[in-house]
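To whoever is on call:

I kicked off a structure prediction for a single chain this morning and the downstream step that reads the tokens threw a length-mismatch warning. I double-checked the sequence; it's 247 residues and nothing unusual in it as far as I can see. Pasting both halves so you can look.
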Amino acid sequence: MATPRVFIVRHGETEWSLNGRHTGSTDIPLTANGEKRVKATGKALIGPDRLIVPKQLVHVYVSPRKRAQRTLELLNLGFDEPFPWNAHGARDGDGLQCSARIEVTENIREWDYGDYEGITTPRIKEMRKEQGLDPAWDIWKDGCPGGESPEDINERLDRLIKDIRSKWHNPVMGNNKQEDAGQQHGDVLVVAHGHILRAFAQRWAGQSLKDGPTFLLEAGGVGTLSYEHHNIEEPAILLGGAFMVDL
């Protein structure tokens, strides 16, 4: 089979993502424009000949925040089982059939911003200066007072990465291939938030958060992770994933 991939999807636009306020535990909805853009993403990137092929998805991890769950609801996927939450709104049609199981996990919730919840980066720097702290705040090195440190993030993301590789990828990779792996392998979808997904990609590639990811993920954006040489020991960020076509 083709080298399995992990698709990371940031939730759609919210009022706070528009004005740059750090949104961790605060549970706010998508804007109307955010919902429209997620629907457009689903139609453009999900399908039998698109980047994300529904029949190749075997598992979905989603944040417990409703903005992430609503994003999954709108992504043009029709799951065999109902969502493990009460729907956050109406959907346009049933979506494309998909047998993947959905798992809500705290491991992929947004960074806990603690004292910086709901505050913009410029204001955080002003606050730190007023408090006699270094105003050159860098979340990747400093973390958030009253919230999570980079070490906290490493711990829960590494736990999730281990789960993905051991359950869904390792059975069909290189020397670890199992003939009886059945259908319990393939692509994985992760729907969550900006900072945590950038951190997830950094840890996926075996890089320290303190090095600071130099890549962005827009609201409603999609990224791809995989492996080089079909080798589970060579995880990589896939900068340009091709659409899937059966020849």
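Update from on-call: the warning came from a stale cache, not from the record. Cleared it. Sanity check on the structure: Residues 150-169 form the longest helix (20 residues).
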